[in-house]
Structure formats: structure tokens, C-alpha cells
């Protein structure tokens, strides 16, 4: 009987640990959205350069939009509700290889004090930066 209690206790602790690890908090959601936006920017930038058509990203009430690409070429919604962009609400993504320094700040309304910056110097790819980095 004592062994059964020990096994049940171990199983309960393991289950609690796994549920804490798998829980998606607002920090993880913000980082995931920032990395996804970087990938979308780079994909749109590559498509713009390949086609020679100017592509501009901007926010919309439903999420965001890539003007200059065919409809449905890239997603236009956030994966997490409550995402907002501060500062620059529009980004030019091409077709020129050098696009000029640009940045947007992404924030999750559930944790408004934490902001991630997605930026490029115009020559290098977009990257996610902590808010205080240049």
C-alpha cells in the first residue's frame, strides 16, 4: 500500500511538472509571434526581389497585410489574440536589395510592459531584438 502511495505521488508530481512546462504563457506567445513575423518579412522580401514588385507590410484591424503579393501568398493574422504593433505600422520590403533601416515593435496586450523589436539595418535580415537594443 505504501509503495502504491509513493508511485501515485511521483505520477502526480510528474504530471504537474509537465503541465507547467507545456503551458503557453504570454512571453512565449510574444516571442513566437516575433519570430514568425521575422520569417514572414524575409519571405515577402525574397518574393519581392524575385518578382521585382514592391511589397509593403502594414497592420490592419484583423492583423496585417502584405500589399504587392497575391492574396493568400502569406498569412495575414496573428496566431495569438491581443498582439499589437507600436511605432511604425508599415514596412517596405522590396524589391530593392537594400531597403533602408526599419523596425516595428510588437507587444502582447496581456503583458504590455514587454515589447520585442523586429528590425533590420536594410542590408541584413530582420531580427528580433530586446527593446533596449539599437
Using brief descriptors, characterize the structure shown.
alpha+beta, 134 residues, elongated, 2 helices, single chain, 3-stranded antiparallel β-sheet
Which helices and strands, and how do they pair?
Blueprint: H1 2-22, H2 26-51, E1 56-60, E2 63-67, E3 83-86, E4 90-92, E5 102-108, E6 115-120, E7 127-130
Antiparallel strand pairs: 1-2, 1-4, 3-5, 5-6, 6-7
Describe the model.
The chain is α+β, with helices and mostly antiparallel strands and 134 residues long. The chain has two helices and seven strands; from the N terminus they run ααβββββββ. It has a four-stranded antiparallel β-sheet with strand order 3-5-6-7, covered by helices on one side. A hairpin with a 6-residue loop joins strand 6 and strand 7. The longest helix is centred in the N-terminal third of the chain and has 26 residues. The chain is elongated. The mean pLDDT is 87. This is Type II secretion system protein GspH. InterPro entries: Pilin-like (IPR045584).
What is the rounded Rg? 20 Å
Strand order of the largest sheet: 3-5-6-7
Biggest sheet architecture: 4 strands, antiparallel
As a percent range, the share of strand residues is: 25-35%
What proportion of the residues is helical, as a percent range?
25-40%
The low-confidence runs, each spanning 5 or more residues with pLDDT under 50, are: none
Elements, N to C (H/E): HHEEEEEEE
Number of strands: 7
Shape: elongated
Distance between the termini: 62 Å
Work out the helix count.
2
Structural class: alpha+beta
Q: Average pLDDT across residues?
A: 87
InterPro entries: Pilin-like
Protein name: Type II secretion system protein GspH
Amino acid at each position: 500500500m505504501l509503495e502504491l502511495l509513493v508511485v501515485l505521488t511521483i505520477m502526480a508530481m510528474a504530471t504537474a511538472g509537465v503541465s507547467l512546462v507545456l503551458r503557453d504563457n504570454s512571453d512565449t506567445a510574444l516571442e513566437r509571434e516575433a519570430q514568425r513575423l521575422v520569417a514572414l518579412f524575409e519571405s515577402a522580401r525574397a518574393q519581392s526581389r524575385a518578382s521585382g514588385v514592391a511589397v509593403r507590410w502594414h497592420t490592419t484591424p484583423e492583423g496585417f497585410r502584405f500589399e504587392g503579393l497575391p492574396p493568400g501568398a502569406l498569412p495575414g493574422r496573428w496566431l495569438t489574440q491581443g498582439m499589437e504593433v507600436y511605432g511604425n505600422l508599415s514596412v517596405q520590403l522590396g524589391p530593392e536589395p537594400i531597403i533602408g533601416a526599419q523596425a516595428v515593435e510588437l507587444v502582447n496586450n496581456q503583458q504590455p510592459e514587454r515589447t520585442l523589436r523586429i528590425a533590420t539595418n536594410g542590408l541584413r535580415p530582420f531580427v528580433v531584438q530586446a527593446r533596449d537594443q539599437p
